[in-house]
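Q: Here's a chain of 223 amino acids. Please give me its 3D structure as tokens.
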Amino acid sequence: MSEPTRVAPARRRGLADEVADRVREAIFDGSYPPGTQLRETNLSAELEVSRGPVREALMRLETEGLVRSAWHRGATVTELSAEDIAELDSLRDALENLAVGLVARRASREDLEAIEAAAARMERAEDEYEMAACDIAFHDAVYVASGHRRVHQAWQAIRCQVHLFLVNRIRANSDGYLEHVPGEHADLVAALRARDAPTAVRLFAEHRKHAIDVLGTDPPQAG
């Protein structure tokens, strides 16, 4: 009887992880705006690594929706279309309605404190891009507090694209962004602490709509 087939040896992917982290951070802090070409040779030279980890990192970022590849252009930072934004918003609507309802009904005191702490960090954001990162961290805390593993996994699948959407929102118009966003999230926290699910769901929807209005993108259509 033949021996069972063995799995292939594990490969160390630490360098590709680091390259992906560096490029992702550059996208999120505005250094690589949407549409920027990401040439392997340039990134390899800038990061002082071989092209293999760069290629692997770009493939990983493509699965996250941050990078798109085309045979005639190579890899570029994703430019979200109106359709992309509409799909993201409709999916967030479904996920957040469920997550927010769960948080309002059953989140522990520790969960609510973690959400409140995430909102409080917005007060210390030094620029719009740091504020966007704080915004994503706030929503991370909400999904964790929902206690729904699959909803949290669904959020993880789109969170990088939502972050990219916020970068687009900042680039379109950042007037009042630093001043207004903390207050919006304080209202969200207050509704969750009051266990007022209908108000919380409404405020989360208004929060999303405001960002879409800044971009001048039509809301998603039903059906």
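Q: Can you summarize the key feature?
A: The longest strand covers residues 67-70.
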